[in-house]
Design a protein that fits this description.
The chain is α+β, with helices and mostly antiparallel strands and 356 residues long. The protein has 2 domains: 141 residues, no CATH class; 158 residues, no CATH class. Helix content is 37%, strand content 20%. The strands form 2 sheets. It has a 7-stranded mixed β-barrel. Strands 8-9-10 form a 3-stranded antiparallel β-sheet. The longest helix has 26 residues. The relative contact order is 0.10.
Length: 356
């Protein structure tokens, strides 16, 4: 009788242990699959993140040379979230002085997010909303759209990912803030997916760039009202070079930082005297001089993309109809000349182009 009771107790204990083990396994959140891509720059869906750091020190010192300790949480990842300790500091020159939230560099090297694409990134650029206010919110969203417009023209362009950012003060001296922002694809990721390598030589000029690519960049910047760029010094330009056999040895120019443009039209963007324009919305062509036939052909390529440009703007859900109308009206100033008075725009291009 004793053996029978002992055996029954053993069986019940075994069943209970198995149930507890099974429940424990089911209760644990699924871990990220390190062989799976997070698709950070392959998806347009907005991501909600939280950044926890010492906001008071950040606002007071805007550190560019040293990092602040921080915590990054990416919400709603496979019905869970990823939270990792990282470091951050500020970037930029003008916005570093002017903005409450200057551009940010996240140092996520060796953080191990558990996703193949995230774990390849060492440093990640974040463009935040400059400061509080609806107009500042529209600025960052319009700059995001400028990147998306250049994506329409070519795959050799920086991809971006829209963010809803919760800023949380670790010192608990400031109330949490929620604002928009976006991540910019790291140059090494862009170079890898296009089978290229980055060229860091700062003495290049427009003659060192593949001609049709240089013309595309110059005309795009003209279309959005951007004169704040140059190939020498790679100011708001990154240069990459194809790893395929290329006897020309010429580079590929990729523009970035579109806040100081007529399309975004921020209140702080005032042309300098040497530029010679009255306001930021006046277009100024800074491309290399070409023949009228070459310009004419390139303008035709832009005109063929007009509907796609406008679709990107009009289908974007995070700006209102007034802002959308302002953007499309500004672009109409370019496309109306391209479609109807091309002689005028060709004259403007050939009158202000750079001779080498």
């Amino acid at each position: 009788m004793g053996k029978k009771v002992f055996f029954q107790d053993f069986i019940l204990t075994l069943i209970f242990s198995l149930c507890v083990s099974t429940y424990s396994l089911l209760a644990q959140p699924a871990k990220p699959d390190s062989t799976k891509s997070f698709r950070l720059f392959e998806d347009d869906k907005i991501i909600e993140i939280s950044l926890r750091f010492d906001l008071t020190t950040y606002f007071r010192t805007k550190p560019r040379d040293s990092y602040l300790n921080a915590n990054l949480t990416i919400h709603s990842v496979q019905d869970d979230s990823i939270s990792r300790d990282i470091k951050l500091k500020t970037r930029g020159i003008f916005r570093n002085k002017y903005c409450t939230f200057p551009p940010i560099e996240l140092n996520i090297k060796k953080v191990n997010f558990g996703y193949s694409d995230l774990d390849k990134i060492s440093k990640l650029k974040l463009v935040p909303q400059c400061s509080s206010g609806k107009d500042k919110e529209d600025y960052v969203l319009k700059e995001y759209l400028a990147y998306k417009l250049f994506n329409v023209l070519t795959d050799t362009s920086f991809r971006v990912r829209l963010l809803s950012i919760n800023y949380v003060d670790t010192q608990k001296k400031r109330k949490p803030l929620r604002q928009y922002g976006f991540f910019i694809e790291p140059t090494e990721i862009l170079a890898s997916r296009t089978n290229c390598t980055q060229v860091k030589v700062l003495t290049l000029n427009q003659k060192n760039i593949v001609a049709r690519i240089m013309d595309r960049v110059a005309l795009f910047n003209y279309m959005i009202g951007n004169y704040d760029w140059s190939i020498p010094g790679q100011h708001n330009i990154v240069v990459i070079k194809s790893l395929n056999i290329d006897p020309s040895g010429l580079g590929i120019a990729i523009p970035h930082d579109f806040d100081w443009t007529g399309l975004v039209n921020p209140i702080y963007a005032v042309p300098t005297e040497e530029i010679g324009t009255e306001n930021i919305r006046e277009r100024l062509f800074e491309g290399v001089c070409r023949s009228k036939e070459i310009y004419d052909k390139e303008l035709g390529q832009f005109l063929s993309k007009k509907e796609e440009f406008y679709r990107v703007i009009n289908e974007f859900p995070y700006i209102n109809e007034i802002v959308k109308k302002d953007i499309t009206n500004y672009l109409d100033g370019f496309f109306n000349q391209v479609a109807g008075r091309r002689d005028i725009i060709l004259y403007n291009l050939m009158n202000t182009c750079k001779k080498f």
